[in-house]
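Working notes for the structural subgroup meeting. M.R. asked for a predicted model of this chain before we commit to crystallization trials. I am recording the input and output together here so anyone reviewing the notebook later can reproduce the run.

Input as submitted:
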Amino acid sequence: MARRPLVVGNWKMHGSAVFADELSGAIAHGADDIPNVDIALCPSHLLLSTVARGIKSSRISLGAQTVSEYEQGAYTGETSASTLGEIGCRYVIVGHSERRHLFGESNTSVAAKSQAAIKAGLIPIICLGETQSEHSKGATNSVIEAQLEPFVEVGVDAFKDVVIAYEPVWAIGTGETASPAQAQDVHAFIRSCLMKIDSRAAELTRILYGGSVKPDNAKDLFARNDVDGGLIGGASLNAEDFLQICRSTP
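Returned structure, recorded in token form:
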């Protein structure tokens, strides 16, 4: 079964309300001519409502950049999955490398956040990837296996309606990019890990590539069999660049 491509813009902590309104409107307008790919925008939490208005009546989905593993309670500064759903989110990024390395999110907490998202009807975009040091040591596969282990322990339900994003940390914001062949190799490995849990999940789960994807390299990356789209950082802050990346999907 063919997997429909997905391109997700991760705006990180960039932009004002005016910027978000203009950018989301421009992307929504341009997306009308790109019917064969799913598109989502993930602004910072305080800009979610602005972007929701900007993409209203368009084919673009709204996503958040993180979520609490808890539904409610005394968790100052956290946002529950149900609240994100109420304001229109369909997707939520979990375990982004910046959350793991700057804010100490563990493999276990990332799995818990994913399960909270699924319970609330959101689609988690589960981020996996190795650092430069781990990459240099040839530890990519073992790192990814460790990051997937908490999901394996939960079982098949952990991979119901999820998206996975492979984001080599050494290629995020550095200008370096995994070659299409490197990306394909890791994506194929991730899919083989899913195959051990459930063959149908392995076939249906979309695996995105994230790491300095730009208009000039997107087509070659997306042409690989197991690369089902991209998680786009810096290039998603420019409407034409982001739309050109979306047009690069098969």
